[in-house]
Amino acid sequence: MTPIAVTGSTGLLGGRIARRLAQAGVAQRLLVRDVGRAPELAGADAVTAEYGDTDSVAAALDGLGTVLMVSASETPDRVDRHRSFVDGAVRAGVAHLVYISFFGASPTATFTLARDHWATEEHIKQSGLDYTFLRDNLYADFFEQMVGEDGVIRGPSADGRVAAVAQDDIADAAAAVLRAPADHRGATYNLTGPESLTFDQVADTITSVTGRQVGFRNETIDEAYASRAHYGAPGWQVDAWVSTYTAIASGELDGVSDDVEKLSGHRATSVAELLQRQRAAAG
After folding, report:
1. Contact 106/114 with Cβ under 8 angstroms?
2. Where are the domains of the chain?
3. Which residue, 27, 42, 163, 185, has most beta carbons within 10 Å?
4. In angstroms, how far is CA 96 from the centroid of its own chain?
5. How much is the pLDDT for 79?
6. For domain 4-136+167-191+255-267, which architecture applies?
7. What is the pLDDT of residues 94-133, one digit of tens each?
8. How far apart are CA 247 and CA 9, in angstroms?
9. What is the C-alpha to C-alpha distance for residues 208 and 198, in angstroms, rounded to an integer?
């Protein structure tokens, strides 16, 4: 059996997908920057490849037919690195590329990084590769991390709604696509949770499940930039952080899809269910 190429296996999402493929007995080639950090999985071997190095990508993908491309780490040159990876896949003779994109990817998206995903999608379309795009909504797994030490989630999202999705659901959907890519040729799927919530509702849900009193404060744009200034992050990154909330305020992350259920065979996980699951896993 020809292995499936998997990127991002040292990360949270890519690692979940790689484990599911291994459990299903699927052979894999894990593309990583450091083979010493690659997970040890049955039927998997690890090779070194850098997204921005077309030659190393082409060598790593040589002889493979299907590739999972998890988006690269957030940097100002991420689109260029993505294009280099796609070009390497073309050179290697890859047939089908499954790309982890973002909900509402567009050249005019409010969320700045969604524009990167749109540019990547366009390059993949123009490459001649068969493709499938998995457009993930915001990760519900990170909601608790958005709560400040004072128990407040802050951001300029107003009463906008977000259909956040659990990473386990994305992994289930992605693994299903990778195991039968021909069935999903040219498809774009919107992976969301089963509900669209305001951040007031997210805060209430966290309070209800965890017992910790959590609230939401709707910031102005100026307040949002000021409250994040102490991190010392570069401007493009702060823009991304703030525009996550303004995209929600504009309604661009609203809208529930049933694509998770179509692909995975089970219903999408609610925020409350995810929080309960996280607590059970933590013991």
Report:
1. yes
2. 4-136+167-191+255-267
3. 163
4. 19
5. 97
6. 3-Layer(aba) Sandwich (3.40)
7. 999 999 999 999 999 999 999 999 999 999 999 999 999 9
8. 29
9. 15
